[in-house]
Amino acid sequence: MKRLEYYILRRVTQMFLTALLPVLAIIWTTQVLARINLVTDTGQSIGSFATLATLILPTIIPIVMPFAIVIGITQTLTTMNNDSELAVIDAAGAPRSVILRPILTLAIVLSLITLVIINVVQPKVKTEARQMIANAYADLLSTVIQEKTFRKVEDGLYVEISQRLAGRVLKGLFVADYRDPSASLIYYAREGAVDPSGTALIMHDGEVQRKAPGGTVSIVHFDSYSFDLATLTQSRGKANLRPSDRSLGFLLHPDPNDDDYKAHPGDYRAELHKRLSEWMLPFAFALMSLAIAGDARSHREGRIHPMASSLILALLLRWMSFYVGNKAETNGHFVILLYAVPVGTALIASLIMLRRKSSLMQSGLRSRLQQLKARLQRQGASSGGRG
């Protein structure tokens, strides 16, 4: 690259990072705070929470990056236009590639980074995050439920313990089980313990009250009673993977015996084409920004600020991408529109720039012809005067 191209690349990159990092920090903070219940509900350490927060970061970078490059390009070129730098570049006869090459190089790099994050990094961190949360909630009774706290374990199941002792021993147990519509069960026990496998709660010296729908109540005292936790711990300890958590290889060749795939094949189809199309957005948005702010303009020309125009269009296109992606889950005809958004944006922006370049070339040629005509007329007039 030439020195001028490095200058433009440096300024655009600095403005891109200036826009990216604060917005990324704000969105990341809101996402992290939304998951603070992992600490409050499961008693996890701050280290586990920090690990989860780190795993969230790669999931929001591809969303913010296209808008950051729009801001970086439009703000840099607008400032250069206000400082008459673009006019000087044009007056010096520099080709348009001086401006296009550094910006499009940055856009291609960011698109490739987005491609890697979406298809390689995101599936791994999402899977790890889901498994981490599942593990945190797996052993609820022996490590999670807080003392003297009435806690909902799942729909229809509530637990309270008075004291937790060493060796997974629990004092003062209260369990209310309303999961079976045919009868509600309430357990009281002086003492209990979760077996080492975590599949059963063994209660000692207590009673169970059974209330039928008609209002009949029966009470049974017991010396020892086993409350089954197998279904609960297995469902809590197993991460349910969604299409966004799957690897690109799985999406390209899904397992026909996978339960989730058999239940939602449209979601997997839409997720595949989202990943193969969304990585093009940074490059398409860069072309759009160049079409809006890439030429020298007069300060007296009345127009909307280039950054406002670019951001409005970028938000509209991003919304269209989300909308089409959601529709593609239920209707396969929307898949083609997932590619039409970035590709169509890039083509339209390129045509605008080519048309503007052709217009400028014609204007320059016309100006040179007029200058040549005026020179010939002056020479003819001077020749006639001497004759």
How would you explain this protein's 3D organization?
The mean pLDDT is 81. The chain is elongated, with a radius of gyration of 33 Å. It is of the alpha+beta class and 387 residues long. 64% of the residues lie in helices and 15% in strands. It has a six-stranded antiparallel β-sheet. The chain starts with a helix and ends with a helix. The chain has two domains: 3-137 and 240-375, no CATH class; 140-237, no CATH class. It contains 13 helices and six strands. Helix 3 runs parallel beside helix 11 (281-293). The chain has helices spanning 3-33, 37-42, 46-82, 85-91, 97-138, 140-144, 230-237, 248-252, 259-263, 265-277, 281-293, 306-328, 335-386, and strands spanning 151-154, 157-165, 169-177, 184-194, 200-211, 217-228.
